[in-house]
Amino acid sequence: MRHHPANPRKARAALSTVLVGLLAAALTTAPGTANAGGEPRPDRPSPGTEGRVITVAADGSGDHTGVQAAVDAVPAHSTERVTIRIEEGVYREPVVIPGDKPNITLIGATGDPRDVVITYDRASGTPKPGGGTYGTSGSASVVIAGDDTHARDLTFENSWLREEHPEITATQAVAVRTTGDRLVFDNVRFLGHQDTLYANSPDADTVSRQYYTDCYVEGDVDFVFGRGTAVFDGCEFRSLDRGSDTVNGYVTAPSTPPDQEFGFLITRSCFTSDAPAGTVYLGRPWVPSSHPDAEPRVLVRDSWMGRHFREEGWIEMSSGHDWRQFRMREYRNFGPGALVTEDRPQMAPDEAARHTARAHLAGDDGWDPVREHRRGPVCTARGR
Asked: Residue 204's CB: how many other CB atoms inside 10 A?
């Protein structure tokens, strides 16, 4: 079903200085911020700590050599924040932050997210030791169910590759699955291919709010999906080239519950790719068989778009669920791929005024993680 380039780990392209100039001019600019390319932000302290500190170091110089061991050491139901400071290295292990462990901060020690990588390599169709397969949810390298989890300056990856496993046809391979509320991801990379970031919630009746700022998300098929209320502010979305001259994948696949006002909001971000022009869709609505009443919602606004996007921005995922019956919208985007056609509907200005990061995330408790005085991303292929 999918074809990946021969060496996807090294597939990257430097965008032109024209792109960088456009982003700098068109997006809110302020000195002293940085992005998931790895440059530390000079206006904030060097990677620091919050509350009790647990150090993870692969060479044995810390409290633990693995991330899961550090999570296991955090007391359940703690009201105090615990920081897990992860030293430089590649940590090949699945990690689960359970729902009874809120208030955990994962932080990469160097400030460069490429230096600290948490990775695993299983897919939906990978056989489980006890029989059966993992399924999409079970394929996740990292599961974050604890409320108020923060992650900063590190990389989450699912390194599973279809060409290495031709015997497996269920190729969904999640890097991170989130179900906690009030989650913050700052200067974090999410690497995978199909279903990279599963921005979800515990169930269709529970809202899970997630704020992604200065992050980098990479994939090809539905690589940002789920029913969570997720805001992506100043992030880069990189569509991988699947080797097709016609269709090289889909960025988003929201499955917003019917009584939930907000789904995905992508703002002040950029969309990049090496794929041929006009071969990538912005997304498609996901209406799971378990929740046939889902009403997928996504708004992409004030963002730069590369030439890889099609004139038909959206497409149905399965028969009977035409994307036009859902709220799949754009507003005030720019760049060569920011087309306005009948199949790229724009949100009206008065409605767009209500769709801000703060409005999406406030909820009943007034949660406001949104950073002020920040700039948009400098998109220079910050991938593998």
From this structure: 17
For residue 213, the cross-strand partners are 186, 233
155-158/176-178 β-pairing: unpaired
Considering only CA atoms, which of 134, 133, 213, 145 is closest in space to residue 177? Answer: 145
Residue 379 C-beta-side C-alpha neighbours within 13 Å: 30
Q: In the predicted model, is pLDDT for residue 48 greater than 60?
A: no
Q: Is the pLDDT of residue 4 over 50?
A: no
Angle at CA of residue 275, ends 270 and 281, nearest 5°: 65
Answer yes or no: is pLDDT of 17 > 90: no
Task: Please report, in angstroms and rounded to a whole number, the separation of the first and last CA atoms in the chain.
Answer: 23
Residues ≥6 apart with Cβ < 8 Å to 24: 375, 376, 378
Compute the mean pLDDT over every residue in the chain, rounded to the nearest whole number.
88
- In the numeric block, the tokens 């949100």 are attached to 347
**273 DSSP β-pair partners:** 239
Confidence bin at 50 (pLDDT 50/70/90): confident
- HSE, CB side, 13 Å, CA atoms: give it for residue 133: 16
Q: Which residues pair with 298 in a beta bridge?
A: 264, 328
The string of DSSP letters for 364-376 reads TTT---PPSS---
Q: What is the DSSP letter of 123?
A: -
Architecture of domain 8-361: 3 Solenoid (2.160)
List, in order, residues 6 or more apart from 6 with CB less than 8 Å away.
Answer: none
d(CA 199, CA 352): 22
Q: Do 351 and 330 contact (CB within 8 A), yes or no?
A: no
For the chain, how many residues are written? Answer: 384
Question: How far are the Cα atoms of 75, 118, 136, 203, 268 from residue 124, in angstroms, in the given order?
Answer: 31, 19, 5, 20, 32
Give me the active site residues, please. Answer: 195, 222
In degrees and rounded to multiples of 5, residue 174 shows phi and psi of -85, 135
**pLDDT at 41 exceeding the cut of 80:** no
Mean pLDDT along residues 137-165: 97
